[in-house]
What we know:
Helix 1 runs parallel beside helix 2 (57-70) and helix 5 packs across helix 6 (149-160). 31% of the residues lie in helices and 17% in strands. A six-stranded mixed sheet has the order 3-2-4-1-5-6, with helices on both faces. The longest helix is centred in the middle third of the chain and has 18 residues, at 120-137. It is α/β, with parallel strands linked by helices.
Amino acid sequence: MTVLLLIRHGLTDTTGKRLPGWAPGLHLSERGRDQAEALPERLAGVPIKGIYTSSLERCRETGAPLAKARGLTPVLRNDLRDSNPGDWTGRPLAQLARTKIWRTVQVAPSRFRFPGGESIPEVQVRAAAEAEQIAAAHPRDVVAVFSHADPIKLIVAHFLGLPLDLFQRVAIEPASVTAIALGHGPVPRLLRLNDTGSLADLAPRRPPRTKVRG
C-alpha cells in the first residue's frame, strides 16, 4: 500500500488575497515558516520514504524542514505547480469575485479556462498523472507531496471519482495534510482530508507482544 501525503504550502503574504499562480519570488510569511517548521513534529513516527514538491518557492520552503529532519532530498516536479491563471496572475481575489466569469470557476470549473492560462481540466490531468507516477515509484511507501490548493483538490477528486464540477467543495487550508492510500484493495481510500492538527495516528501501529507461557 502506498500512502500519499498531499501537503499544501504554508501561508504567504498573498494567501487568500491574490492569485499568485506561477509568479516567481513568492516566499512563505513568518506564520508560513512556523507552519513548515511544525511539520516534522506533526509527522513524527510516520515513515516517509520520499519527498516531492512543486518547483515554486513557497512549496519548496514548506517541504525543506521535513526533508532536513528526515535526511531526504526533495524531488522538484513542475506538474505539481499551482494552476496557471495567465492574465489573472497577481489579481486580487475580491476583484475577481465581482466578475461574471468567476461564477463559472466555482460552479462549472470543467468549462473554465483562465484567460491566457490553463483550463481546470488541464490542471487536473497533469496533477493527477504526477500523483499516480509518484505512487507507482513508491509501492508500499509513505510519500510526502507538497503542492497547492487547486492541484490537491483536483487530485482528491480524481482518486475519489468526484465529478470535476464538484471539486470546489473540497477545502484545503495552508499547511494542511490530506492522506490517500492506494493499493489497499481495489479502490483508493481517503485517510485524512485538510488536516491541520496532529497526524500521529498515521504512524504504523506495532502489534502487541504476546507473552509466552511455559
